[in-house]
Amino acid sequence: MIPTEVRALAVSASASLPAYITDLPGLLTHAQAVRAALPDNVELFYAAKANPQRPILETLDGTVDGIEVASGGELSHVRDTLPGSRLAFGGPGKTADDLELALKLGVERIHIESVHELRLLADAAERQQTVADVLLRVNLPMRVDGAQLTMGGAASPFGLDADALRECTALLRMAPRVRMHGVHAHLASGLNADQLARVAGEVVKWAVGQDLPLSEVNLGGGMGVDYDDPSSVFDWPAYGAALAGLAAAHPDLQLRIEPGRSLAAYCGYYATRVLDVRPSNGRAFAVVHGGTHHLRTPAARGHNQPFQVVSVERWQHPWPRPSVTDGPVTLVGQLCTPKDVFARDVPVRSLKAGDVVVFALAGAYAWNISHHEFLMHPSPAFHYLEPS
Ligand SMILES: *Cc1c(COP(=O)(O)O)cnc(C)c1O
Questions:
Q1: Which domain holds residue 372?
Q2: Residues 131 and 192 occupy one common structural domain
Q3: Ligand 1 within 6 A of 160 CB?
Q4: 259 lines ligand 1 (CB under 6 A)
Q5: How many whole angstroms separate alpha carbon 153 and alpha carbon 357?
Q6: 20 close to 383: Cβ distance less than 8 angstroms
Q7: Alpha helix locations (H) across 214-342?
């Protein structure tokens, strides 16, 4: 599960722990496999909010067709990191300043989330005497079985429902500086290839049935990552085949997807040292250096973060080494809250104070969604395995 190079770096004397270790060659290989599984005429954008770190963006550049940003901050950062990249700008609550910036920085597509936002953009385009290119983000009534998050159909802070869509199309007729290219639909996340293929089919069928200017459909992200079984990866060839079918049936439609988690999750590892192992009322707790203020993903999603123990023989104290053998252990961090849990009651063969634990699937929605300031612990180190 953990590449040899990552384990080696985690236990090497030069690595200060806790640390994020990012396997950039692994990221590149994975992204290339995703790209190869998709039809050539379907565009692949990376949703930067999953992990906007520069080395990640630089590694993906050239394999993905563009980057989706979801805030003014991400927009500036990505433009600065990859000056030539194609950008799409989505997300709720874009300010007038954000929209001005998007026009100035040459964002290729702005995804409109509300009627007010469209008015703000039309205004900004008028003031800058420039053209804004948009997709309308739609909130379609659609049930997706097995979806962890259902963003479509129900009341939602995202996208346009039928009434808002009508209002936007009326507005567009009076806003010559805003060019509408089609629709955007990011309806759910955590879906498998089968489910996502069904969503894609429904979205395209709906879109071509509307009386809307339509040359593009952005089908969003939401490809699932299985934290219980890291080896079970989203079936990109199956999803690619479904998209190829859709593209063939609608040759004048440009299809685009914008995954985040499913591209970045696998290349990231959080490595740390076990500080203490303590029994408590029949259970064993391993306290590791760091915590969910570094890696909030398991706390945010309520899952067990997959991990491997790397045994370390060194023990410098004269007293017995706290340990657990052949039993379940709960891995917690240094925060004074019962929510600071990485994994609950996971069986291990042996886990001792001083051992190194490497958590996998820490490349997406990990460091960047964590509450770094809580309890004033130091930040982790960041190590990058570079392509050879
Ligand atoms: C978050 C988000 C994505 C990426 O979602 P993943 O689940 O990380 O693939 C894509 N598009 C939009 C609009 C989003 O909000």
A1: 266-385
A2: yes
A3: no
A4: yes
A5: 42
A6: yes
A7: 236-249, 261-264, 297-301
Q: How far apart are CA 336 and CA 173, in angstroms?
A: 57
Go through the chain and tell me how many residues it has.
388
Q: Indicate yes or no: pTM above 0.90.
A: yes
The answer to whether residues 287 and 367 belong to one domain is yes
Query: Residues 99, 220: one domain?
Result: yes
Structure tokens at 30: 């994975």
Distance from the alpha carbon of residue 271 to the mean position of ligand 1, in angstroms: 26
Is residue 108 a part of any domain in this protein?
A: yes
DSSP secondary-structure letter at 262? H
Specify whether 220 is located in the same domain as 331: no
Task: Note the maximum CA span of the chain.
Answer: 80
In 3D space, the residue among 334, 329, 356, 368 whose CA is nearest the CA of residue 271 turns out to be 356
User: Residue 66 falls within a domain, yes or no?
Assistant: no
User: Which CATH number covers residue 125?
Assistant: 3.20.20.10
The pair of structure tokens assigned to 293 is 């203020």
The total of structural domains in the chain comes to: 2
CATH number where 322 lies: 2.40.37.10
Residues 191 and 276 in one domain: no
State the catalytic residue, choosing from 155, 174, 336, 376.
Answer: 336
267 is an active site residue? no
Rounded Cα distance, 283 and 327, in Å: 9
Specify the ligand 1 atom closest to the Cα of 190: 7
**Is the CB of 297 inside a 6 Å radius of any atom of ligand 1?**
no
Predicted local confidence at residue 331, as pLDDT: 98
Stretches in the chain below the pLDDT threshold 50: 147-149, 151
pLDDT for the residue numbered 148: 45
The verdict on residue 96 lying in a domain is: yes
Helices assigned H by DSSP within 115-173: 115-128, 162-173
Q: Region of 222 please: left (phi>0), alpha (psi -120 to 50) or beta.
A: left
